[in-house]
Each structure stands twice: as structure tokens, then as C-alpha cells.
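Mods, move this if it's the wrong board.
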Amino acid sequence: MTSEPKSSRLSGGPVGFPFAPPLPLFLLNPILKRIVHRIAAQNPDMFDRLGPHRHAYFLIDPVDMPLMLYLRPDPEALDFRAVNRRALPPHVARISGKFLDLLTLMDTEQDGDALFFSRDLIVTGDTEAVVCLRNALDDVDEPIAESVADMFGAPGRGALNFLRRAAENAQKRKGAST
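Not the wrong board. C-alpha cells:
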């Protein structure tokens, strides 16, 4: 029995269900658009840290999910949407890692820099653009993950707390295995 390559397994449906139909990304994209506009309205100064990279496109690749996220952090032309793994749009940088590690990066209460140095997150392309994006996230008063959770009320905050615990447990397991 041969094992299926990770990339082809992720190109269909959810992980573990390779023959499931592709996710209907058009249902997710209005929510992502609402999120990015809300974060931008709450934190207009964060765009200053991006400098010339505010017009850049970033590909955020949660390797354990069947989709990728496409971000253009330009306050005049914000774009944040889910994209299919089989049709990657042009981008200047790609940030890849497990979903929980990417969440930790956005959750400024956690040490996102350690994820880069531990190679839990992999950056390809323009690393200067990614550093500017990380600096912009650091300038946000309330962690972006909390702002997003608050948009969905008590269920959103509960989900964030669950994900934070899952990320902490994953880090503990990783530390115990090294």
C-alpha cells in the first residue's frame, strides 16, 4: 500500500477526506472580507509599518487545510480571500505552516517570532515583506485573533480559547518529543 502525497491529499476536500468535494470558497470569502475590513478600521496605523509592501500580495498557507489565504494589506484596496491550492495566484511571499502555528503568529499574545526561528513557519519569497507584515501585526493593540473572535460573540471567543489551548498543547507535545 502506498501513501498518498500530502499535496494531492490537500487539493481535494478536508484533510483525511481526499475524495470530498472542494470547499465552496465563495461562501468563506465574504466572511474574510468582513474580517479584514474590520481589522483595518480598528487599526489604521498598522499599514504605516508595511511601507512599500502595502501593495504586495501574500499567500498564507495552512498546510493542514485544503485552502490557502490570499492577502493584500493595502488600505485602499484590501483583499483577503480563500484560494484553491491548485490555482495559486501571483504573490511576493508565502508563509507556510500548520493552522495552529499561523494562528499563533496572528495572536500577538503569543511569541510568533519563535515560530520563524524554530522553522514551524516557512517563508518563501520576499522575506523583507514578511518582516514588515509581522511588524504591522505587532503594532495592533488587541490581538487580531481576539478581534476576529469578538466579531462572532461568545461562540467566537470560545472557539479562540479552544484553539489557543490546542496550540499550547501542540507546542508542549513538540517540546516533549525533542
